[in-house]
Automatic annotation (TrEMBL):
Secretion signal, residue range per the UniProt entry: none
Keyword Ribosomal protein: yes
Keyword flag Chloroplast: no
Provenance organism: Nasonia vitripennis
Protein name: Large ribosomal subunit protein eL14
Gene Ontology terms: cellular component: cytosolic large ribosomal subunit
Length: 156
């Protein structure tokens, strides 16, 4: 099956646009092909409708009855440990890193640029040192392989 994330009751979604941007909600019901009823008790988002174009579906899905109340959604959210599972994903880590980058001051960006420059110099030097040592090893192996052949030829 090419698709793994479906718009369905219990699907956890990331809000990408609007006043609740950056928070997680759970789909409670499908209103029509463009809108869904969502509830986010853990992220303090009241039950309401959202456009599907404002949501990104995640791989997480909660098990609760069709159009479950906020209390039911909260209980399923806590049992599923969605906040902990979300924090482990690369998606959440990238969002957090992006937020940190946006909060950097001018001086912090300068320090980061200098640190990257130093890191790159160290990395380049280590790479060329390894490259040089492997080149020496190859030369040594080829000379060892050719020396016995020359000795055998001179003995005859």
């Amino acid at each position: 099956m090419p698709f793994e994330r479906f718009v369905e009751t219990g699907r956890v979604a990331y809000v990408s646009n609007g006043p609740y941007q950056g928070k997680l909600v759970s789909i409670v019901d499908v209103i029509d092909q463009n809108r869904v009823l969502v509830d986010g008790p853990a992220s303090k988002i009241p039950r309401g409708q959202m456009r599907l174009s404002d949501l990104h579906l995640t791989k997480f899905r909660l098990k609760f009855p069709f159009t479950g109340s906020t209390r039911v959604v909260r209980k399923a959210w806590e049992e599923g440990k969605i906040d902990e599972e979300w924090a482990k994903t690369m998606w959440a880590k990238k969002v957090e890193a992006k937020k940190k980058r946006l909060e950097l001051s001018d001086f912090d960006r300068f320090k980061l640029r200098r640190a990257k420059r130093v890191r790159n110099v160290l990395r380049t030097n280590a790479f060329f040192k390894l490259k040089k040592s492997t080149k020496k090893d190859k030369v040594a192996k080829t000379t060892k392989a050719t020396k016995p052949a020359k000795k055998a030829a001179t003995k005859k």
